[in-house]
Amino acid sequence: MPKIDPNLLFFGNFVDGSSRLNDLEQFREHAEGFLQRERIYFEEEAHPDIEREFLPLFAETFPPILHSSIIISTAILLEQELRGFSNALIEALNLKLKFNDLSGSIFEKFRTLVSKVANLSLDQTAVRWDDTIGLFEIRNCLVHAHGQLSEFQRASTIRAFSAKYGTPECDDSTMTVDARTSQLALEITSTFLEGIYSLAIERFPGDYGPLRKRLGAV
Asked: Which domain of life is it from (predicted)?
């Protein structure tokens, strides 16, 4: 089987990842529109005795569930892209190893492969590395600790993220995500993907690149 041109491989992977991220962005926009319409209905049109009593339940319960699902889906996409990028890099460089041969978390494996094995200059500021780690820990807390910071070992990472951006809201024991958190998750992931794929396309020049700021047309 002929080997795929690395420039084409990385550009194609970038387009695929960006398209899936755009799908999540569009879903979020539609969901936010639905929430706003429902709020207006409950506040202005709902029967005062029969329906309006459900407004607090709707406002407090449904939005966090929705935005949690977007954050979790975005983190899943991010993890898939980390693995996909790593496997493409291994293939492009004809490396005699597998991604899982590396030690540490998925981010530690990725950084080792990119910086130490492939000798690529990963600018952690440009790709918002710390923010990306924070996003992943928010996802982990939602999935494994139901948003309970008191039960999550890396709560300090989330609190630092919250202090920087004002979201998610954190009290002594609980983390609460909202529309700002899910929007930020998408923005961070977009920057990260553009950063790593720009690095790869610069390393493997060809017909595609350099990447510009990701647009909806990508």
From this structure: Bacteria
For residue 133 the two structure tokens come to: 């780690």
When pLDDT is cut at 50, 70 and 90, the band that residue 218 belongs to is very low
Res 62: pLDDT: 80
Neighbouring residues of 58: CB distance < 8 A, sequence distance ≥ 6: 38, 39, 42
Predicted pLDDT at 33:
84
Could you tell me the CA-to-CA distances from 164 to 23, 62, 149, 159 in Å, in that order? 27, 26, 17, 9
Range of the domain at 62: 6-203
pTM (2 decimals)? Answer: 0.87
* Cα–Cα distance, 34 to 165 (Å, whole number): 25
User: Distance between CA 147 and CA 155 in Å, rounded?
Assistant: 10
The first and second tokens of residue 166, run together, are: 């004002």
Identity of residue 79: E
Q: Please provide the distance, in angstroms rounded to a whole number, between the alpha carbons at the two ends of the chain.
A: 29
The pLDDT tens digits of the residues spanning 47-61 come to 565 555 555 666 667
Task: Collect all residues with Cβ–Cβ distance below 8 Å to 83 and sequence separation of at least 6.
Answer: 99, 106
Q: Please report whether residue 209 resides in a domain.
A: no
Residue 176 lies in a domain: yes
pLDDT at 37 over 80: no
Q: How many domains does the chain have?
A: 1
208: in domain = no
Helix intervals (H) in 122-178:
129-145, 155-165
